[in-house]
Specification:
Length: about 500
């Protein structure tokens, strides 16, 4: 009997994985505040993030084996009740978000101690958990209004997390304020778009909306909704020229926050864009309005060059990486705008690969900041020999950012070039290669500062602690591993692309 019960419990837990994905960090956040213990804040955060990661791995395995998981909250069937829907596209993103979070947290333990006063640690970790909850909720939910709710949960906690950088640099407060203003405008556009969709279809369940849009044909209200949602989410994604909040936010936020956000927040926003474009509005609608070819493609190409060009002239390592992030978003959007399976696969793989690349680079910068007190090139000059392991990891991350063969960045850029050639757009393929050459320049400037310049100040000797070095190297090795073992990411991304291109059929 005992064995039977245990099996039953195990089954039940497996059935509830979609809700546990969001619930674990959500319950842990108030727990951290209520306990009010600085000693317990980090262990609780880390354990809940690690549990969320295990859940994400299990969900991905389930989805790849058995197709789509539909979880009805409270036993209410959609469209009346709220549904959590897990398919290859969002299982892949859930894995990225929880994986990055779990690797960044041991790093955060040391970096937060040096950047944030002790009395605020509980608040910091509670906001971190809420941000994680919001990001996971956005990805897991199949309800359009729920996407908005979770976006706001993650955004509000992000504003607080960025503002925590003010103990080191007061400009973090204005960066958080700028992001607040831009984020609010983005959210307003998004919710107006949702209101118009609801007006046109009378439902908020995504699968249901897509079916009803397909029945209606061309409808002005639906077209207006599409425009509002694309602009609203575009602000969250930091699509060029709606990126103005991002450089300051990434530069002045605490190092651990930047490493987490750069790898996850914009990636989740891109997922929302994909989900609405392909699953809700349908690929046929996109072909009809030509939005992608005439609007998103030019913006993507401009982002690749303009942001890379600005990155070349930065003298602050963190700020350079922030502009590089805007350029990488351009690559992902370019893949989406091809409207082909190869293009979408390339975009989804790049979303993942850029996530791990940015994590290693921003954590590396954080380690340099801890030792030198700043991230300007003249501050970090000559730190290569003084911090050999950190610097080596930064070089690996830099090579992945350029797209050197054998690194994760190469896989996705090569897939993008293939997608462009498949469409017969060889000038676009040349542009991808040309913009990667700009990345060579700004990555070289960092390597030059680390290894070829003499230290301009008294260098505080030695490496950072293993707590920080371990996570940096986990991500650096991930850049190499996913650069060589391409099958894992490409298979998952191809399954995701097939599901998205199937439109509403991919949601059933």
């Amino acid at each position: 009997m005992a064995i039977e019960t245990a099996q039953h419990v195990a089954m039940t837990l497996t059935d509830h994985l979609p809700i546990l994905q969001v619930l674990v960090p959500f319950v842990a956040a108030p727990l951290v505040v209520l306990l009010g213990s600085r000693q317990l804040a980090w262990p609780i955060t880390f354990i809940s993030s690690a549990v969320a990661f295990v859940v994400a791995v299990l969900l991905l395995m389930q989805v790849i084996d058995g197709g789509i998981i539909s979880y009805h909250i409270g036993g209410w069937a959609p469209p009346l009740g709220i549904e959590y829907r897990i398919d290859p596209a969002n299982a892949f993103v859930l894995l990225l978000v929880t994986g990055v979070s779990t690797v960044v947290l041991p790093y955060a333990r040391k970096s937060v101690q040096s950047e944030i006063p002790d009395r605020h640690h509980s608040l910091f970790y509670a906001c971190y958990l809420l941000c994680l909850t919001g990001l996971l909720g956005v990805v897991a939910t199949g309800d359009a209004f729920n996407v908005f709710v979770f976006l706001e949960i993650s955004s509000l906690s992000t504003y607080v997390l960025i503002a925590q950088g003010s103990y080191r640099d007061k400009r973090a407060l204005t960066a958080a304020y700028d992001y607040l203003i831009m984020g609010t405008i983005g959210a307003s556009f998004f919710v107006i778009g949702l209101g118009l969709l609801y007006m046109a279809t009378g439902t908020l369940n995504m699968a249901d909306i897509s079916d009803r849009i397909a029945e209606q044909g061309s409808n002005r209200t639906v077209q207006a909704a599409f425009a509002f949602i694309v602009v609203g989410v575009g602000l969250k994604v930091a699509v060029y020229p709606l990126h103005t909040w991002l450089p300051n936010a990434y530069t002045y936020a605490p190092s651990a926050v930047t490493a987490f956000l750069a790898s996850t927040a914009t990636k989740v926003a891109i997922y929302v864009l994909l989900r609405f474009m392909f699953s809700v509005f349908q690929p046929a609608f996109l072909f009809e309005v030509n939005t992608l070819e005439f609007i998103i493609l030019p913006f993507a190409v401009v982002a690749m060059f303009a942001a890379s060009f600005i990155a070349v002239f930065q003298s602050d390592f963190k700020r350079m990486l922030a502009y590089s992030s805007v350029a990488q978003i351009g690559y992902i959007l370019l893949g989406i705008s091809f409207l082909t399976e190869t293009g979408l696969t390339a975009a989804i793989v790049h979303l993942f690969n850029d996530g791990i690349t940015k994590a290693v680079l921003f954590m590396g910068v954080g380690a340099l900041v801890l030792r030198t007190g700043g991230s300007f090139y003249d501050r970090i000059a000559g730190m290569g020999p003084a911090m050999p392991f950190t610097s080596a990891a930064i070089v690996i991350g830099g090579l992945s950012l350029i797209g050197i063969p054998g690194t994760a960045g190469f896989v996705s850029k090569w897939a993008l070039v293939q997608a462009a050639l498949e469409k017969g757009w060889w000038p676009v393929a040349l542009l991808i290669v040309a913009s990667s050459l700009l990345a060579v320049i700004y990555v070289w400037r960092v390597i030059e500062a680390l290894y070829l310049h003499a230290p301009t100040q008294d260098v505080k000797g030695g490496e950072v602690s293993i707590w920080m070095l371990g996570p940096i190297w986990v991500m650096a090795l991930a850049c190499i591993y996913f650069g060589l073992a391409t099958e894992i990411t490409l298979t998952a991304a191809r399954a995701a692309a097939e599901g998205l291109l199937a439109g509403s059929a991919g949601m059933h």
